[in-house]
Amino acid sequence: MTDFKTIFESRYTWIEGFMRNVRRYGNKMAMINPDDNRKWTYAELNQECNRLCNSLAFDGLKKGDVIMLQLVNCPEFAFGYLAAHKSHAVCCPVNFRLKPGELAFNIDDSKPLTIIFNETNKADVLEALTMTKHQPKRLIVVGGKTDGKVISYEDYTRPSSIQEPYFTCDYNIYDETTRLYTSGTTGFPKAVPLTSINEVLSAHDVMIHFPMNYKDVTMNTTPWFHRGGLHCAGPCPAFYAGATIVVMSKFNAELTLRYVGEYKITFIVGVPTVLEELADNQERLAHDISTLKGIVTMGSPLERSACIRYQHVLTPNIYNGYGTTETFWNTFLRPFDLPANAGTAGASCIDDDVRVVKIYDDHRATPGDLAAKDGIEVGEVIISSPAKSPYVYANNVGETDRKYADGFIYTNDLATWDKNQFITIVGRKDDMIISSGENIYPTEVEAVLNMHPKVKDCIVTSVPDKMRGQIVTAYIVRDDLSLTPEELDDYCKNSPNIANFKRPRFYRFVAQIPFNATGKKLHVRIKETALDDLKNGLLYRV
What we know:
17 helices, Rossmann fold, single chain, GMP Synthetase, Chain A, domain 3, 9-stranded mixed β-sheet
C-alpha cells in the first residue's frame, strides 16, 4: 500500500495528465486563436509552455510562487496556466475588469512573483502597484512593447529554450496549482487555493457530465479567470482530456456560430444571456452548427420557454450547472432533465452532496437538519464537494471558519427542493447581485458611493433585467441637493475602487433608508421597494 500511496500522490496530478497527452497526441491540434490565426499542436503548446517555464526559472521562480494573470481569454493565459503547473508554481487569474484599488488588494494578498497582463490593463496595473506594499519582480505585458517598467511577452520568452525545464522537487496531488478570487458578503475578495487533485477531478466531472473526450473541440465564451471559465470546457478539462480549444477573447454571437462551422466545435459554454444572443443570431442567419453536441450554461437558471427555444434553434442538448468558485458546479441539468425541470438548479452531481437545510436566526443548521422536500420551505444550500473543493481560503482563517463546517460549504444561497432533490434558487442570504454572470455585493458598491462628498448615506440593491439578469440600483440620501445621478455615474466610472460592471445603472434619491433595530440596512425591504419603483417609473436610469 505504501507504493500505491506514493505513486498515486505523485503521479495522479493535472500536469502528468497534460504530459500524457503531449506524448499521445503530439501532432493533434490543442489550441486555435482565431483573432490572429495562430494554432498549436500539443507538442507545440508544450514547447511554448517550456519557454515560459525556463524564463521564469531564470527569474528565480520556486515552488509555491504565484504567477498572477490579468488577461482576457488568450493563448498567453493558457501558457501561464500550464507553466504554473509545470513549474510547481500557483496560477492566480484575476478579473481583467478590476480597478487599481481592487487589484492592489489581490497583489498584496497573493504576493505574485510575476504579473502577466494585457496592454489595455497596463495603466491600471501600474497604478495598482503605487498602492501596494508588495512589488512583483517581473511585469510582463501581452500585446505591448518593452519599456523601462514592463517587458513584452515575446521579449521575455523568446530567448528561452523549448526544452523540458529541470526541477528538483516532485509533483504532488496536494500542491496548490491555481488560486481564484471570489467575493465575500463584505465585498472583500477571498482566495480559493485549488490543489492539483481538485483540478484533475474537476476535469473528470466535465468529462463525465457532458461527456467530453479527446475528439471534442470546445469554446468557452466566459472569462477564464472564473471557475466556470477555466474548468468548464476551458484549459483545465480540455487539455487534460486531449481536446481542442478555440479561444474567444470577447464574446460575439455571429463569430461564435461561424466558428462552430469553421472549426467543427462540439461544445459551447456561456451564461444564459449568451444563449439568448446565439439563438437570435441563428434564427436570423442560419449558420451550419451541425457539429454541436451541446451547449452548457451556468450562472442562473433557464426559464422553461427560453430552454425550449434554445433546444429548437441551437441544439437539443442544453446543459445547466450550478455551483460556486469554491466547489465548481455541484448540481447539473442534462438534456433529459429539460425542459421539465427548467427553472431549477438541478440535482446533485455524481460525486457531490447538495442539500437544503433549515435557516435559524441564532445558529447554523447542521447538515442533517433538512428543509422539507416540498418545493415550498426555503432553506440554505450547503454543498459537500470533496473532489473539487480545497475546504479552505488562502490567508483567511476567519472566512474559512465562517463558510465551512462538517465537510460542507454554507453558500448563503436560499432555495427550495423537491422530493427528487431538484433545487430551485430563490435568492441570497447576503443579497448578492448577479449581473451578466458577475457577482456583485451591495456593500462594496455602497462603500464607494459613500466616499462621494455629496452622499450622506446609501443602500444598494438590484432590479430584474432581461439581458443582465439583475441591474445594480442605488438609493441615495444626499448631503448636498445639487448632486445628480449623472455626477454619481461619472464618479463611479472614474473611481479606482470599483469595477465598471459593478456601478449602479438606476438611481433614486430618498430622504432616508431603511434600518432594523440594530442599525443594519434592510436590503430585503429596499429590494421590494425597488421592484415597485421600477414598475411605477420612479427609478432614474443613467
